[in-house]
């Protein structure tokens, strides 16, 4: 993906590889389950966010694209990577010709870099990639336009506002947070997953 500058930082993404699994696990669990940064879920969910096995399955899935923002010694794309990841985002191609959509998930920015516009750049890059992919085979019809979707936790009004400012809207679909031990441990009984969507034009 192309480089973009934000607050004097060069943000660049590449597709995740098996060698990134350990760093991805650390980044996602830190961003979602620790109390650092403003995007964490620590007050709502305990336990781990994701396992190495789940990440390996995602990376091996041909319809799921997981992108990472690697830290380099120089801060430039061509610099030697340190092994640490500063951000990541996933694009899962779903649906079929009459219902083309891409699910945006596993979105994280290192807590020390949050609030600097890096997340905006990463999200925009993922949206552009998804839109091009969705429209590459057949143009989505006006009747069934292609969509970007994502899920967020209820009781996170600041996160909902963040995505609404970027064109996402609640579509009315929601489900109770799974209490099966595979997604962390909810700390309140009324926790739900709310689906957001944004149409691709």
Low-confidence stretches: none
Rg (CA only) = 17 Å
Query: Order of helices and strands, N to C?
Result: EEEHEHEEEHEHEEE
The number of helical runs is 4
Proportion in helices: 10-25%
Described by strand count, sense and barrel closure, the largest sheet is: 7 strands, mixed
Distance between the termini: 20 Å
Structural class by secondary-structure content: alpha+beta
How much strand content do the residues show? 35-45%
- Identify the strand order in the major beta sheet: 3-5-6-7-8-11-9
The outline comes out as globular
> Mean of the pLDDT scores?
89
Tell me the total number of β-strands. Answer: 11
List key phrases describing it:
single chain, alpha+beta, 11 strands
Structure description:
- The protein is 23% helix and 35% strand.
- The chain contains 4 helices and 11 strands; from the N terminus they run βββαβαβββαβαβββ.
- A 7-stranded mixed β-sheet has the order 3-5-6-7-8-11-9, with helices on both faces. The chain has a two-stranded antiparallel sheet with strand order 1-2.
- The protein has 201 residues and is α+β, with helices and mostly antiparallel strands.
- The radius of gyration is 17 Å and the shape is globular.
Task: Note the topology.
Blueprint: E1 4-6, E2 9-11, E3 14-15, H1 21-33, E4 45-46, H2 52-60, E5 64-72, E6 81-96, E7 99-109, H3 118-134, E8 147-153, H4 157-164, E9 169-176, E10 185-186, E11 192-199
Parallel strand pairs: 7-8
Antiparallel strand pairs: 1-2, 3-5, 4-10, 5-6, 6-7, 8-11, 9-11
